[in-house]
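User: Good morning. I'm curious how zinc ion would be positioned relative to this chain. Could you predict the structure with it bound?
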Amino acid sequence: MLDTITGALESVKAAVDIGKIIIDSGKAIDVANYKYKIAELLSLLAEAKISITEINDEIVSRDEKIKKLEEELKIKEDIKIEGVFYWLNGDGPFCTKCWDNDRKLIRVVPTYAWTCKCPACKNVYEQGNNPERELYHAWLLKNGFMP
Ligand SMILES: [Zn+2]
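Assistant: Good morning! Here's the predicted structure, ligand included:
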């Protein structure tokens, strides 16, 4: 991006220099040369505009990346693993595989009895005697999956 910024600044400086030449020339410049200098000036300004657009796109892209990383960091600070699931401030259960691999919070869904499945990666979690079984059971009750 630094090269793009340098290029934009060089284009603007060259355009300003041409503008000064035109102004300083007064009536001494002929029409053909005048038109040539104006065309050169417009070309430099167009180059600068393209470079500035590229810089803007890069800044927007970096801002989005920073926002995403800040959100991930906040989640990383608050997320707790209990047994095979992640829980975020009492919300969950979330698939550990999807968070660990892709940084996506995907809620697992119950399939039957003490088993649930991630709808994204299709990982199946057997509850059996897992220590978070009670937390999972409470979540099933809260969300109407169990009578
Ligand atoms: Zn998953």
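Strands lie at 79-82, 85-88, 91-95, 109-112, 115-117, 124-126. The pocket of zinc ion is lined by residues 95, 97-98, 106, 118, 120-121, 123 (CB under 6 Å).
Let me know if you'd like a different ligand tried.
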